[in-house]
Amino acid sequence: QVCILKRRARPPPCKCCIVSLVSAMGLVKKGDKEAEKGTEAPEDPPVVKQLKEVDDKYLELEKEYQKEVQKLAVKYTELQQPLLEERKKVLVACEDDGPKTGTPALSGFWLKALQNHPAFEDIIQEWDEPVLEYLQDIEK
After folding, report:
1. Rounded to the nearest 5°, which phi and psi values hold at 3?
2. CA atoms lying within 13 Å on the CB side of residue 35
3. C-alpha to C-alpha distance for 126 and 132, rounded to whole angstroms
4. Angstrom distance (rounded) from CA 53 to CA 31
5. What CA–CA distances, in Å, run from 38 to 15, 26, 33, 43?
6. pTM for this predicted structure
7. Within 13 Å and on the Cβ side, how many CA atoms surround 90?
8. Among 82, 75, 94, 69, which residue's Cα sits nearest to residue 139?
9. CA distances (Å), origin 2, targets 19, 20, 37, 128
10. Are 139 and 84 in contact (CB under 8 A)?
11. How do the pLDDT tens digits run along the chain, 140 residues long?
C-alpha cells in the first residue's frame, strides 16, 4: 500500500519496513529469513503510478510557488526598509528635557506594541515591562 497523501511528509519505507509489511500481509511466513531477504516492494498499480505523477507535478508547481513567494518577500522587505528606518528616527528623536532611553518620542512604544501582538501578549510578564521600556528598535 502507498499513502499518496502522506508521500511528501515521510521518506519511502526502508527494506525492513517493507519486509514487515509483507510479513503482516501473510505473503511471507514469520521466521522465513531467506524469503524475507529476497522480498522486493510490490509494483504499484497503474492508478497509484498515475497519482504519483500528478503529485510530482503538484510538488514541482509548489516549488515554483515557494520561489516566487521568496522573491516577493525579499522585494517588499527592501521596499519597507526605508519606512522602518524613518519610524526608528521618529521614535528615538529626543527632546532636550525628555528621557534619553527607549523611545523618547513615545514612551514605551515597543512595550505596548509587543503587549498588543498576539504572539507575545500572553508571554510578557509584569517584571518584563520595565526592561522592555528601554527598547529602541526590535528589527535587529
Report:
1. -95, 100
2. 10
3. 10
4. 37
5. 10, 15, 9, 15
6. 0.56
7. 8
8. 82
9. 15, 15, 21, 51
10. yes
11. 444 444 554 555 565 556 565 565 555 555 555 555 556 778 889 999 999 999 999 999 999 999 999 999 999 999 999 999 999 999 988 877 777 788 888 889 999 999 999 999 899 999 999 999 988 888 75
Residue whose C-alpha cell is 528601554: 134
Q: Is 83 exposed, middle or buried (0-12, 13-18, 19+ CB in 10 A)?
A: exposed
Q: How far is CA 83 from CA 107, 117, 137, in A?
A: 20, 20, 13
In angstroms, the Cα distances linking 52 to 3, 46, 57, 68 are 10, 10, 9, 24
CB–CB of 134/102 below 8 Å?
yes
